[in-house]
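Late entry, written up from scratch paper. The run itself happened at the end of the previous shift, but nothing got recorded in the book at the time, so transcribing now.
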Amino acid sequence: MKSTGQGRFRGVPFWVYKEQRSRGGRRVVRREYPLREHGGADDLGKKLPEHTFTLSLTGDDAQAQRVRLTQALNAPGPGELLHPDWGTLSVLVDNFESRYSVDNQRLVEFTVTVVPVADETAPTVAQDTAGVVNRQGDSTLAALFSTLADGWQASLHDAQALMDTVSEQANTLESALNGLGLLADMQSFTASFTALRGNIQGLITTPDRLALAFKGIFQGIQRLPAYPQPEQIKNRARAPVSPQPGALQHQIVQLADRLDSALVRQDRQRDRQGLQPTTRSTMQLLHNTLRLAVAVVQVQMLSSLLTASLAAVSQNAPAQVLPRAASPAPRQLSDSGSVWLESTPDVVRVSQQVARRLDACALTTSALGYQSLALQVRALSRAFVADLSHRGVALPGLIQASVTTTEPALVTLYRISGDARDTARFIRRNRLRHPLFVPGGERVEVLCG
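Output as recorded:
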């Protein structure tokens, strides 16, 4: 008996013995037809490689070794094969047979056929959660203003109060957009507000046109990221940092927060004494519709902002490796300030805030008697949370660290992370007034991974 070396399968040792065979080739399909002299063949790709080898077990305990190897060969799933000629392979056992002679039970032979496990996995279907949010947002926005048109009730007794309410809401929207510096660059917005204010008396008696006028304003806000960004926005940076991805979406998200607060404040200050119940219901419907429209636009902008953040992450340099000692216990993130979806904690915080706002608006809508619309708002809330939860895991994590002494931002970032290439984002994220001075005693945030 001559062996070529020792091998192992699932930890059970054996000796490679006699012949070793490997099979391969191409998956050729022949095209042959009856009563025809000609044919052909097609190449359908590479065959799966297959290895057949003979092994031996020797010694006084050869039968015990046979039992152990048989159990290893019959075990489900792939196993690790260590072969002296083929190296280490992850294989599946196709078939095997064992042989031994009753007059010499100190020698057992096996013939084993194995197939290597495929390295590639089958493609998985990825759900377009961002597309679901956009489609759900568009349908919710359409349902909002359709509900406004259907539920609008104008009374001649309170016509002036309704006109004042519509005018106040239009002024609030225009003032908020003026804060972005866009109206000078977007003539369509200017025309929409001019037409709305100039024909309020006619619009309150034709709810379809009124709803269409407000809907056009919010659809214009939705389309803003597709337009060229005005230089007025690009030059408004508070610190010497490079432009960030999704800058316009970020400003629209902040605009939505301010606009929602302004609408709530305006509604609380409105005098409803002496108004008829139908007029009060109409005012409440208009207020709720505009708040929901603001929330829908904010949801779509946040989803778009996450897309821009993920694109920026995929183009960045290799991730920073943070020392474990520099990771103190995490603190609660502040709810105020900029909304840049740059880390997983940012995604969690923003999704919870917006979901709470949408759920509150859904409850108000249901209380007003519009259950179908309330269900659509809840569906949008679920789609938004699912989108951020599904895609947000690809963003880096976040740590907080204390600064012991006043030092430049570049030094602080390098001391915490070992890499100072992302100083611009570190300055912006921590709202540092000057890049050369990080005050001692402050806690700063650093993206990790």
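Confidence is low (pLDDT under 50) at residues 231-243, 317-338.
(Scratch paper discarded after transcription.)
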